[in-house]
Amino acid sequence: MAAALLARLCRGVPGLRDTLGLRAARPPLAAAAAAAPPLLFRRPAAPPGPRSFSAAELVRAAPAPLQPYLRLMRLHQPAGTWLLYLPCTWSIGLAAAPGCLPDWRMLSLFGVGAVLMRGAGCTINDMWDRDYDRQVARTASRPLAAGDISTFQSLVFLGGQLSLALCVLLCLNYYSIILGASSLFLVITYPLMKRITYWPQLVLGFTFNWGALLGWSAIKGSCEWSVCLPLYFAGVMWTLVYDTIYAHQDKRDDIMIGVKSTALHFKKDTKQWLSGFSLAMLLSLCVAGMNCNQTLPYYSAVAAVGAHLAHQIYTLDIDKPEDCWKKFASNRTVGILLFIGIVLGNLWK
């Protein structure tokens, strides 16, 4: 009875129940949370991770007015630049004197040229395809399709890229200047091919592997066709492999908007076609190697390239866009493997 009376009295006196220990004890953290301002107990922000120096991060760090132009030239997606540059390195490496490393000046010059010409090609492509790009989820955010820059601004930017690329080309010999300039027709017309034929990837192969001819002529003053043509053909076959894989990302959208590609042409037979292109590439590389007296490291690299391509094709899931992108991007490794084999094979001589 006394306890009940005491409890009743405590209800009317603030703080007395706590003092007497009649209120259920709160856990220390809960009590602190109730007493403290809510902001003090929010989850702290995660500490910033290490800064990335990827191409995408560099583009994001650029001044805002400059970013649409950098994205227009795909500076944030360097995989395509590598695929344009690597056939140049193969040719420069094969043209080196026996026992010597490739000409680093030419490798640097062609690297700059690859960035500029890949950027110019992407700008031309987006100018032709801006209406198509708006209808495809993966490309709708491209600067022209999204309206971040105008067609006129893109045209002026294209002129600047081509002017700088011409400066690079003028550093080469006369034969190479004419040979390099002759590729401009392919650069301009390639984006139209997807409206005309199911083989736009073949035209891209002719365009992207021009450096297999140009690299040799830049070193030697002219093309040795017994080496350059098999090397060029190998590059074209390689492009058919990786760009067919790339095209499978967009095949559903391409059907809806009426765009053609080898992915739509090959359908479920894609892996058989890719296997044939890979075999043709490897045979052509062997012919090019024999015609310039390449040695064991070169053929070992060709075998490694074959193994890489076989793994790509065997594990490829053409119905998963993320897998298609992963396989496409891994082709940089293919090109680097071959370049290393060329360099070591030349030093072996």
- In this structure, how is the largest beta sheet organized? none
Radius of gyration: 30 Å
Rounded average pLDDT: 87
**Which range best describes the helical content: under 10%, 10-25%, 25-40%, 40-55%, 55-70% or over 70%?**
over 70%
Q: What sort of overall outline do the alpha carbons produce when their principal axes are compared?
A: globular
Beta-strand content: under 5%
Sequence stretches where pLDDT stays below 50 over 5 or more residues: 1-52
Number of helices: 21
| Number of E strands | 0
Order of helices and strands: HHHHHHHHHHHHHHHHHHHHH
Descriptive keywords:
single chain; 349 residues; mainly alpha; 71% helix; disordered N terminus
